[in-house]
Amino acid sequence: AYLSLPPFANSALSSLSRSLVCVATASRSLPRMSAPNARQSQGSSMSVITSRSTNGAGNISAAFLEPEEGMILEVPNLRIFTFAELKAATRNFKPDTVLGEGGFGRVYKGWVDKKTMNPMSSSVGSAMVIAVKKLKPGSSQGLEEWQCEVNFLGRMSHPNLVRLLGYCLEERELLLVYEFMAKGSLENHLFRKGGSVHPISWALRLRIAIGAARGLAFLHSSDKHVIYRDFKSSNILLDTHYHAKISDFGLVRNGPADGDSHVTTRIMGTYGYAAPEYVSTGHLYVKSDVYGFGVVLLEMLTGLRALDTARPAPQLNLVNWAKPYLADRRRLPQLVDPHLEGQYTPRAALRAAQLTMSCLAGDPKNRPSMAEVVAALEKIERMKPPPHRLISPRAAARTMHGRTQTRIPTPPPH
Protein backbone atom coordinates (compact mmCIF):
# COMPACT_ATOMS: atom_id res chain seq x y z
CA ALA A 1 0.00 0.00 0.00
CA TYR A 2 1.38 3.37 -1.02
CA LEU A 3 0.40 6.75 0.32
CA SER A 4 0.83 9.49 -2.27
CA LEU A 5 1.35 13.07 -1.24
CA PRO A 6 -1.76 15.22 -1.54
CA PRO A 7 -1.67 17.62 -4.52
CA PHE A 8 -1.22 20.74 -2.38
CA ALA A 9 1.95 19.35 -0.82
CA ASN A 10 4.03 19.39 -3.99
CA SER A 11 4.08 23.16 -4.20
CA ALA A 12 4.59 23.54 -0.47
CA LEU A 13 7.66 21.34 -0.16
CA SER A 14 10.77 22.03 -2.15
CA SER A 15 12.87 19.88 0.19
CA LEU A 16 10.78 16.73 -0.12
CA SER A 17 10.79 14.30 -2.96
CA ARG A 18 7.66 14.24 -5.10
CA SER A 19 7.77 10.48 -5.13
CA LEU A 20 5.21 8.38 -3.34
CA VAL A 21 5.51 7.89 0.39
CA CYS A 22 5.78 4.19 1.07
CA VAL A 23 4.39 3.30 4.47
CA ALA A 24 3.84 -0.42 4.06
CA THR A 25 7.49 -0.92 2.97
CA ALA A 26 8.99 1.53 5.45
CA SER A 27 11.40 -1.20 6.55
CA ARG A 28 13.62 -0.15 3.65
CA SER A 29 14.38 3.15 5.37
CA LEU A 30 14.50 1.92 8.97
CA PRO A 31 17.28 -0.31 10.28
CA ARG A 32 16.61 -3.52 12.14
CA MET A 33 17.06 -3.59 15.89
CA SER A 34 19.88 -5.75 17.21
CA ALA A 35 20.10 -4.88 20.91
CA PRO A 36 19.64 -7.46 23.66
CA ASN A 37 16.54 -5.63 24.90
CA ALA A 38 14.89 -5.52 21.47
CA ARG A 39 13.38 -8.34 19.49
CA GLN A 40 12.51 -8.34 15.82
CA SER A 41 9.10 -9.54 14.73
CA GLN A 42 9.45 -12.58 12.49
CA GLY A 43 6.98 -13.81 9.95
CA SER A 44 3.92 -12.96 11.98
CA SER A 45 4.45 -9.20 12.05
CA MET A 46 1.21 -7.24 12.12
CA SER A 47 0.20 -5.59 8.88
CA VAL A 48 -1.29 -2.16 8.37
CA ILE A 49 -4.96 -1.99 9.41
CA THR A 50 -6.79 -0.83 6.34
CA SER A 51 -10.35 -1.97 6.94
CA ARG A 52 -12.89 -2.43 9.70
CA SER A 53 -15.74 -4.90 10.03
CA THR A 54 -19.12 -3.39 9.32
CA ASN A 55 -20.64 -4.72 12.53
CA GLY A 56 -17.88 -3.35 14.79
CA ALA A 57 -16.73 -6.84 15.78
CA GLY A 58 -13.14 -7.67 16.52
CA ASN A 59 -10.74 -6.34 19.13
CA ILE A 60 -8.60 -3.90 17.19
CA SER A 61 -7.10 -2.35 20.34
CA ALA A 62 -5.56 -5.72 21.21
CA ALA A 63 -3.22 -5.26 18.25
CA PHE A 64 -1.66 -2.29 20.01
CA LEU A 65 -0.41 -4.19 23.05
CA GLU A 66 3.27 -3.49 23.68
CA PRO A 67 5.90 -6.16 24.31
CA GLU A 68 7.91 -5.60 27.46
CA GLU A 69 11.30 -5.39 25.73
CA GLY A 70 10.16 -3.49 22.65
CA MET A 71 10.24 -4.52 19.03
CA ILE A 72 10.36 -3.25 15.46
CA LEU A 73 7.59 -4.30 13.10
CA GLU A 74 8.18 -5.16 9.46
CA VAL A 75 5.45 -2.69 8.48
CA PRO A 76 3.62 0.04 10.41
CA ASN A 77 0.81 -1.31 12.59
CA LEU A 78 -1.56 1.62 12.25
CA ARG A 79 -5.29 2.22 11.94
CA ILE A 80 -6.23 4.43 9.01
CA PHE A 81 -8.90 6.86 10.22
CA THR A 82 -11.17 8.94 8.04
CA PHE A 83 -11.34 12.66 8.69
CA ALA A 84 -15.01 12.29 9.55
CA GLU A 85 -14.15 9.74 12.24
CA LEU A 86 -11.60 12.01 13.90
CA LYS A 87 -13.91 14.99 13.59
CA ALA A 88 -16.57 13.01 15.47
CA ALA A 89 -14.08 11.69 18.03
CA THR A 90 -12.92 15.22 18.94
CA ARG A 91 -16.43 16.76 18.91
CA ASN A 92 -15.70 18.64 15.70
CA PHE A 93 -12.29 19.77 17.03
CA LYS A 94 -13.94 21.92 19.67
CA PRO A 95 -11.64 24.43 21.41
CA ASP A 96 -12.34 22.87 24.81
CA THR A 97 -10.76 19.60 23.61
CA VAL A 98 -7.39 21.24 22.81
CA LEU A 99 -4.56 19.65 24.81
CA GLY A 100 -1.75 21.76 23.41
CA GLU A 101 -0.22 23.33 20.34
CA GLY A 102 3.18 23.12 18.65
CA GLY A 103 4.90 23.78 15.35
CA PHE A 104 3.03 20.91 13.70
CA GLY A 105 -0.40 22.06 14.84
CA ARG A 106 -2.91 21.58 17.63
CA VAL A 107 -3.42 18.41 19.66
CA TYR A 108 -7.01 17.53 20.54
CA LYS A 109 -8.53 15.13 23.02
CA GLY A 110 -10.82 12.53 21.49
CA TRP A 111 -12.77 9.40 22.39
CA VAL A 112 -13.00 6.07 20.57
CA ASP A 113 -14.31 2.60 21.37
CA LYS A 114 -11.66 0.47 23.06
CA LYS A 115 -12.31 -2.51 20.82
CA THR A 116 -13.22 -1.12 17.41
CA MET A 117 -11.45 2.28 17.60
CA ASN A 118 -14.60 3.85 16.18
CA PRO A 119 -15.49 7.34 17.50
CA MET A 120 -17.90 7.47 20.42
CA SER A 121 -19.19 9.69 23.22
CA SER A 122 -16.96 10.30 26.23
CA SER A 123 -19.85 9.33 28.51
CA VAL A 124 -19.88 5.72 27.33
CA GLY A 125 -18.09 3.33 29.65
CA SER A 126 -16.05 1.63 26.93
CA ALA A 127 -14.69 4.92 25.59
CA MET A 128 -10.90 5.22 25.31
CA VAL A 129 -9.24 8.63 25.33
CA ILE A 130 -6.88 9.44 22.44
CA ALA A 131 -4.77 12.42 21.42
CA VAL A 132 -5.25 13.70 17.86
CA LYS A 133 -2.57 15.93 16.31
CA LYS A 134 -3.89 18.01 13.39
CA LEU A 135 -1.54 19.60 10.87
CA LYS A 136 -1.68 23.37 10.48
CA PRO A 137 -2.79 24.37 6.97
CA GLY A 138 0.21 25.24 4.79
CA SER A 139 2.81 23.86 7.22
CA SER A 140 5.60 22.47 5.00
CA GLN A 141 7.68 21.31 7.96
CA GLY A 142 4.61 19.63 9.40
CA LEU A 143 4.20 17.38 6.38
CA GLU A 144 7.78 16.17 6.62
CA GLU A 145 7.34 15.49 10.34
CA TRP A 146 4.05 13.67 9.66
CA GLN A 147 5.89 11.31 7.31
CA CYS A 148 8.63 10.77 9.86
CA GLU A 149 6.14 9.89 12.60
CA VAL A 150 4.34 7.34 10.41
CA ASN A 151 7.49 5.74 9.00
CA PHE A 152 9.43 5.57 12.28
CA LEU A 153 7.07 5.56 15.24
CA GLY A 154 4.50 3.55 13.28
CA ARG A 155 6.84 0.56 13.35
CA MET A 156 8.23 0.93 16.86
CA SER A 157 6.72 -0.66 19.92
CA HIS A 158 8.36 -0.07 23.31
CA PRO A 159 7.00 0.65 26.81
CA ASN A 160 8.86 3.98 26.89
CA LEU A 161 7.77 5.31 23.50
CA VAL A 162 4.34 6.89 23.03
CA ARG A 163 2.15 4.67 20.86
CA LEU A 164 1.09 5.97 17.49
CA LEU A 165 -2.31 4.33 16.97
CA GLY A 166 -3.16 5.59 13.50
CA TYR A 167 -3.31 8.43 11.03
CA CYS A 168 -5.49 10.23 8.53
CA LEU A 169 -4.43 11.33 5.05
CA GLU A 170 -7.43 12.81 3.31
CA GLU A 171 -7.25 15.63 0.75
CA ARG A 172 -5.71 18.58 2.63
CA GLU A 173 -6.02 16.96 6.05
CA LEU A 174 -3.07 15.25 7.77
CA LEU A 175 -3.62 13.92 11.28
CA LEU A 176 -1.88 11.58 13.73
CA VAL A 177 -3.60 9.62 16.50
CA TYR A 178 -1.74 8.71 19.71
CA GLU A 179 -2.44 7.10 23.03
CA PHE A 180 -3.51 9.70 25.62
CA MET A 181 -0.97 10.53 28.35
CA ALA A 182 -3.05 11.65 31.30
CA LYS A 183 -0.35 13.39 33.37
CA GLY A 184 0.99 15.57 30.58
CA SER A 185 4.64 16.43 30.09
CA LEU A 186 7.59 16.27 32.45
CA GLU A 187 8.09 19.97 31.71
CA ASN A 188 4.72 20.79 33.28
CA HIS A 189 5.59 18.92 36.46
CA LEU A 190 9.13 20.26 36.81
CA PHE A 191 8.17 23.88 36.27
CA ARG A 192 4.65 23.63 37.64
CA LYS A 193 2.70 24.81 34.62
CA GLY A 194 -0.94 24.58 35.72
CA GLY A 195 -2.47 25.12 39.15
CA SER A 196 -3.00 21.43 39.98
CA VAL A 197 0.61 20.38 39.33
CA HIS A 198 2.83 19.78 42.38
CA PRO A 199 6.59 19.15 42.56
CA ILE A 200 7.53 15.54 41.91
CA SER A 201 9.69 13.62 44.38
CA TRP A 202 13.31 12.51 44.02
CA ALA A 203 12.25 8.87 43.65
CA LEU A 204 9.70 9.71 40.96
CA ARG A 205 12.16 11.89 39.05
CA LEU A 206 14.61 9.00 39.00
CA ARG A 207 11.92 6.60 37.80
CA ILE A 208 10.94 9.01 35.02
CA ALA A 209 14.59 9.52 34.03
CA ILE A 210 15.16 5.75 33.87
CA GLY A 211 12.08 5.26 31.69
CA ALA A 212 13.08 8.00 29.27
CA ALA A 213 16.65 6.68 29.16
CA ARG A 214 15.39 3.21 28.28
CA GLY A 215 13.39 4.69 25.43
CA LEU A 216 16.45 6.45 24.01
CA ALA A 217 18.60 3.34 24.51
CA PHE A 218 16.05 1.37 22.48
CA LEU A 219 16.28 3.86 19.61
CA HIS A 220 20.07 3.79 19.67
CA SER A 221 20.20 -0.01 19.69
CA SER A 222 19.59 -0.45 15.96
CA ASP A 223 22.38 -1.37 13.55
CA LYS A 224 22.38 2.16 12.14
CA HIS A 225 21.39 3.84 15.41
CA VAL A 226 18.18 5.85 15.21
CA ILE A 227 18.86 9.39 16.44
CA TYR A 228 15.99 11.18 18.18
CA ARG A 229 17.47 14.70 17.72
CA ASP A 230 15.09 16.74 19.92
CA PHE A 231 15.23 15.31 23.43
CA LYS A 232 13.75 17.73 25.98
CA SER A 233 11.46 17.72 29.01
CA SER A 234 8.39 18.76 27.01
CA ASN A 235 8.76 15.64 24.85
CA ILE A 236 8.65 13.26 27.82
CA LEU A 237 5.01 12.44 28.55
CA LEU A 238 3.60 10.72 31.63
CA ASP A 239 0.67 8.35 31.90
CA THR A 240 -1.70 7.96 34.84
CA HIS A 241 0.99 6.16 36.85
CA TYR A 242 3.77 8.61 35.87
CA HIS A 243 5.24 6.06 33.49
CA ALA A 244 7.53 8.01 31.13
CA LYS A 245 7.26 7.79 27.35
CA ILE A 246 9.12 9.71 24.66
CA SER A 247 6.87 11.53 22.18
CA ASP A 248 7.16 13.65 19.04
CA PHE A 249 9.23 11.77 16.46
CA GLY A 250 9.08 14.42 13.76
CA LEU A 251 12.84 15.07 13.75
CA VAL A 252 14.02 11.46 14.12
CA ARG A 253 16.49 10.20 11.54
CA ASN A 254 18.79 7.28 10.86
CA GLY A 255 22.31 7.52 12.23
CA PRO A 256 25.64 7.20 10.41
CA ALA A 257 26.38 4.24 8.13
CA ASP A 258 29.44 2.65 6.52
CA GLY A 259 31.67 3.29 9.52
CA ASP A 260 31.05 7.03 9.67
CA SER A 261 30.93 8.65 13.11
CA HIS A 262 28.21 11.16 12.31
CA VAL A 263 25.71 12.40 9.76
CA THR A 264 25.60 15.95 8.47
CA THR A 265 22.17 17.53 8.42
CA ARG A 266 20.52 20.90 8.71
CA ILE A 267 20.37 22.05 12.29
CA MET A 268 17.00 21.47 13.90
CA GLY A 269 15.87 20.93 17.46
CA THR A 270 15.65 23.18 20.51
CA TYR A 271 18.31 25.63 21.65
CA GLY A 272 19.53 24.84 25.14
CA TYR A 273 19.10 21.09 24.60
CA ALA A 274 20.95 20.63 21.31
CA ALA A 275 24.54 19.35 21.56
CA PRO A 276 27.24 21.97 20.90
CA GLU A 277 28.89 20.00 18.07
CA TYR A 278 25.54 19.79 16.28
CA VAL A 279 24.77 23.49 16.71
CA SER A 280 28.21 24.59 15.50
CA THR A 281 28.81 22.18 12.62
CA GLY A 282 25.58 20.35 11.76
CA HIS A 283 27.34 17.07 12.58
CA LEU A 284 24.85 14.78 14.32
CA TYR A 285 26.15 11.91 16.44
CA VAL A 286 24.21 9.22 18.26
CA LYS A 287 25.66 10.71 21.43
CA SER A 288 24.22 14.11 20.53
CA ASP A 289 21.07 12.62 22.07
CA VAL A 290 23.03 11.84 25.23
CA TYR A 291 23.84 15.53 25.61
CA GLY A 292 20.14 16.41 25.41
CA PHE A 293 19.43 13.78 28.04
CA GLY A 294 22.07 15.38 30.26
CA VAL A 295 20.31 18.74 29.97
CA VAL A 296 17.00 17.18 31.04
CA LEU A 297 18.75 15.37 33.90
CA LEU A 298 20.11 18.73 35.03
CA GLU A 299 16.62 20.23 34.90
CA MET A 300 15.33 17.36 37.03
CA LEU A 301 18.16 17.79 39.53
CA THR A 302 17.77 21.55 39.88
CA GLY A 303 14.12 22.28 39.09
CA LEU A 304 15.36 25.03 36.75
CA ARG A 305 14.79 25.44 33.01
CA ALA A 306 17.54 24.86 30.47
CA LEU A 307 17.01 28.41 29.26
CA ASP A 308 15.23 31.12 31.20
CA THR A 309 15.27 34.77 30.18
CA ALA A 310 13.91 35.71 33.63
CA ARG A 311 17.28 34.79 35.15
CA PRO A 312 20.26 37.20 35.14
CA ALA A 313 22.30 37.10 31.93
CA PRO A 314 25.17 34.92 33.30
CA GLN A 315 22.59 32.35 34.39
CA LEU A 316 20.51 32.33 31.20
CA ASN A 317 21.98 29.00 30.01
CA LEU A 318 21.60 26.47 32.81
CA VAL A 319 24.34 24.12 31.58
CA ASN A 320 27.04 26.78 31.35
CA TRP A 321 26.14 28.26 34.71
CA ALA A 322 25.62 25.03 36.67
CA LYS A 323 28.74 23.08 35.64
CA PRO A 324 30.94 24.52 38.45
CA TYR A 325 28.34 23.36 40.99
CA LEU A 326 28.15 19.87 39.50
CA ALA A 327 31.92 19.50 39.79
CA ASP A 328 32.10 20.65 43.44
CA ARG A 329 30.54 18.31 46.02
CA ARG A 330 30.60 21.04 48.69
CA ARG A 331 28.52 23.43 46.61
CA LEU A 332 26.32 20.82 44.94
CA PRO A 333 23.57 21.04 47.63
CA GLN A 334 23.07 24.69 46.65
CA LEU A 335 22.15 23.54 43.15
CA VAL A 336 19.70 20.74 43.99
CA ASP A 337 16.00 21.63 43.90
CA PRO A 338 15.00 22.55 47.49
CA HIS A 339 11.70 20.70 47.02
CA LEU A 340 13.79 17.52 47.21
CA GLU A 341 15.20 18.26 50.66
CA GLY A 342 15.50 15.12 52.78
CA GLN A 343 14.57 12.74 49.95
CA TYR A 344 18.06 11.69 48.81
CA THR A 345 21.46 10.86 50.21
CA PRO A 346 24.50 13.08 49.51
CA ARG A 347 26.08 10.12 47.70
CA ALA A 348 23.07 9.75 45.40
CA ALA A 349 23.09 13.48 44.57
CA LEU A 350 26.82 13.33 43.85
CA ARG A 351 26.42 10.32 41.55
CA ALA A 352 23.55 12.07 39.73
CA ALA A 353 25.72 15.17 39.30
CA GLN A 354 28.65 13.11 37.99
CA LEU A 355 26.39 11.31 35.52
CA THR A 356 24.96 14.64 34.36
CA MET A 357 28.48 16.01 33.83
CA SER A 358 29.51 12.97 31.79
CA CYS A 359 26.41 13.32 29.56
CA LEU A 360 27.27 16.99 29.01
CA ALA A 361 30.88 16.34 27.97
CA GLY A 362 31.99 18.60 25.13
CA ASP A 363 33.39 15.74 23.06
CA PRO A 364 30.72 13.18 22.05
CA LYS A 365 33.29 10.38 22.45
CA ASN A 366 33.51 11.14 26.17
CA ARG A 367 29.78 10.79 26.76
CA PRO A 368 28.37 7.47 27.99
CA SER A 369 26.04 5.38 25.86
CA MET A 370 22.38 5.44 26.82
CA ALA A 371 22.67 1.81 27.97
CA GLU A 372 25.38 2.96 30.39
CA VAL A 373 23.18 5.85 31.49
CA VAL A 374 20.33 3.44 32.28
CA ALA A 375 22.66 1.28 34.38
CA ALA A 376 24.00 4.31 36.27
CA LEU A 377 20.52 5.65 37.02
CA GLU A 378 19.37 2.26 38.28
CA LYS A 379 22.32 2.23 40.72
CA ILE A 380 21.41 5.72 41.95
CA GLU A 381 17.80 4.63 42.39
CA ARG A 382 18.96 1.92 44.81
CA MET A 383 20.69 4.53 47.02
CA LYS A 384 17.69 5.16 49.24
CA PRO A 385 17.96 7.39 52.34
CA PRO A 386 17.17 5.82 55.73
CA PRO A 387 13.56 6.32 56.89
CA HIS A 388 14.41 9.07 59.39
CA ARG A 389 15.83 11.21 56.57
CA LEU A 390 12.63 11.16 54.51
CA ILE A 391 10.80 14.47 54.48
CA SER A 392 7.38 14.48 56.15
CA PRO A 393 4.25 15.55 54.25
CA ARG A 394 3.93 18.61 56.48
CA ALA A 395 7.55 19.61 55.89
CA ALA A 396 7.09 19.00 52.18
CA ALA A 397 4.09 21.33 52.20
CA ARG A 398 6.12 24.01 54.02
CA THR A 399 8.92 23.59 51.50
CA MET A 400 6.52 23.77 48.58
CA HIS A 401 4.82 26.95 49.77
CA GLY A 402 7.71 28.59 51.56
CA ARG A 403 10.25 28.75 48.73
CA THR A 404 10.05 30.83 45.60
CA GLN A 405 9.54 29.03 42.32
CA THR A 406 12.30 31.03 40.63
CA ARG A 407 14.92 30.12 43.23
CA ILE A 408 18.42 30.96 42.01
CA PRO A 409 21.51 29.88 43.96
CA THR A 410 24.42 32.25 44.40
CA PRO A 411 26.35 32.26 41.12
CA PRO A 412 29.79 30.65 41.19
CA PRO A 413 32.75 33.04 40.97
CA HIS A 414 34.21 33.60 37.52
TrEMBL record:
InterPro entries: Kinase-like_dom_sf (IPR011009), Plant_Ser_Thr_Prot_Kinase (IPR050823), Prot_kinase_dom (IPR000719), Ser-Thr/Tyr_kinase_cat_dom (IPR001245), Ser/Thr_kinase_AS (IPR008271)
Keyword annotations of the record: ATP-binding, Cell membrane, Kinase, Membrane, Nucleotide-binding, Serine/threonine-protein kinase, Transferase
Span of domain Protein kinase: 93-391
A single Gene Ontology CC term: plasma membrane
PROSITE patterns hit by this protein: PROTEIN_KINASE_DOM, PROTEIN_KINASE_ST
MF terms in GO: ATP binding; protein serine/threonine kinase activity
Subcellular location, record wording: Cell membrane
Keyword Cytoplasm applies: no
Domain of life: Eukaryota
Top EC class, one word: transferase
EC nos: 2.7.11.1
Pfam families linked: PK_Tyr_Ser-Thr
Family membership noted in the UniProt record: Belongs to the protein kinase superfamily. Ser/Thr protein kinase family.
Function: May be involved in plant defense signaling.
Name the UniProt record assigns to this protein: non-specific serine/threonine protein kinase
Natural source organism: Aegilops tauschii subsp. strangulata
Taxonomic path: Eukaryota, Viridiplantae, Streptophyta, Embryophyta, Tracheophyta
